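Batch job 17 of 40 flagged for manual review because the log was empty.
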Amino acid sequence: MASKTIVTSQHIIDKIGGAENVTSLTHCATRLRFQLRDQSKVDMVALESDPAVLGVVPQGTTGLQVVMGGGVADYYGAIIKEPGMGNLSEDKSSGTKEYGGVRGKSSRVDFAFEFLSDTFRPILWALLGASLIITLLVLADTFGLQDFRAPMDEQPDSYVFMHAMWRSVFYFLPIMVGATAARKLGANEWVGAAIPAALLTPEFLSLGSAGDTVTVFGLPMVLNDYSGQVFPPLIAAIGLFWAEKGLKKIIPAAVQMVFVPFFSLLIMIPATAFLLGPFGIGIGNGISDMLFWVNDLSPFILAIIVPLLYPFLVPLGLHWPLNAIMIQNIATLGYDFIQGPMGAWNFACFGVVTGVFVLSIRERNKAMRQVSLGGMLAGLLGGISEPSLYGVLLRFKKTYYRLLPGCFVGGVVMGIFDVKAYAFVFTSLLTIPAMDPWGGYTIGIAAAFLTSMLLVIVLDYRTKDERDEIHAQIEAELAEANEAEDERIDAAENITAASAGAGTAGAAGAVATAPAPTKTALEAGTVTMITAPLEGKVIALSEVPDPVFAGEALGKGVGIEPTGDTVVAPAAGKVLTVQKTGHAVGLRLDNGVELLIHIGIDTVNMAGDGFEVLVEKKQQVSAGTPLVRFDLAKIKAAGYSAVTPVLVVNTKKFATVEGHTGAQASIGDEIITVTAPEAETA
């Protein structure tokens, strides 16, 4: 039996148009990244129907991102093993952009955003690990075990070693950025790493201190401290791409492996040291100075602006340069003024998904419960917002109206306390001690979290149509699950009864003849009439004031505008499901027809007020057995439609399901004709 990972992988391939529609496939920390021949072949709705798929994000005219969360590598590994996909795995020496090339103005912008995002995402793991090591050291500082900001020669050797553990990531960050940026562009990633590495060697550092000017090759070179910098290696990787492209045009293919990297290093290391490196540092300093000016003008205003901007920057990947500025601020100023307010955005985001988690438990919505739980844990414990962003926030229209108030409230609190960070960390519950004052920061993230969470719980995170569609899906899934369980129980009971009957017959020495089975609605050619389960006017399903029922998403049938107050069983059968609120009941009739009777539209919101459930799940009922009694006046007074859909939920098993509308029906009157398909002839 195939694993869930394999089943989901096959589902993804099928819904993106098949393996033949894919030109390339890569993945980052949370997303599968496809380049497609024809983006219009993607079935977005069906693709997102798999609970493992957290979101689908089209990019440009041929790109598609499928958000899978932390287990993306497992799905990537399964997909490339599928027929036709094995030759699409990432080829790091191809010399082509993963994006598939530039195709017009909008695609250039898309690729620029993607370039920034995909450069930093592979490094995310190392940055997250280092940030938690920093948190341990900050906790040691909080409890007086060591001074986090003291010079290394004044700290015990054990703490010096722990500082080396996190500084390794930040000091050599330019090398990592150089490698990932070059790989994204299609240049050689190891040459991309070697270029900034040259500026971190003891030989280069021995030339002088940052700010000094030395003479190299007869030219003046301004020295800079490149440790922890990201803009110089980014710009150098772009230069490397063009250098390699030009060299490959003039160097014969037979010797490119030797001479392309040789000339690339010979050209790009001096170009970076003399020109591109100082230019990159100037860009970083310019952005930092602008933010510092706003902070110097009013820390309170900056603390509100930052969390309100982040929800729009993160989907575009534009937040990564700000992360670089945070690292640079800590290196130059000794503190950073962006991370604290940024925590308000993160925790407002986590508050939204926590609210979704609460609602999904209440609604028994397994798919959203899984998505929201994953986003909540990744956020609260890891400070990672992507699962929340792509799994929930960008999928539902109203989520930003719940998110932004939390960002604002949290930002106000951060501004009041003028929160600063003294170490670069991912803003999670585990990294609170890295902020100062940590008490004010805690109040700020709590305010952001609770504001957004409560808004979701009270006002929901979906439009009415989105909510109705999800409720209908849940009811269908429950009915299907109940059907499968009842079929299993019935099969077991039949086997037991057959065994007992055989034993009795053998003991008596007689031959028993089983009674002929009753003809059911499922048998070939059978025509079965379904009678009205309540009194009222029968209307076409298309007239039911709910798009899910009217669109026959749950099966064909009719609607009834009730005049009575009791729903009864139209024939003998078993209760598959009955909602505690009384607004819906599912039956499997002995003739094989499965019915869903949904009393009113959106009446689930009445929480059972005005409904009296008269039967239990799995109870056997006969024709005319009362199932639910309801108060028609209360439904109308609450502002809900009392129209009651009566649906044949296993419609697909029949040749036709035809409703008889336009008449006033009494209980027992025929309202639906069900016709089984004819038997196939040999």
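Reviewer: the log was empty due to a logging misconfiguration, but the result itself is present. The chain has 21 helices and 22 strands. Unflagging and moving on to job 18.
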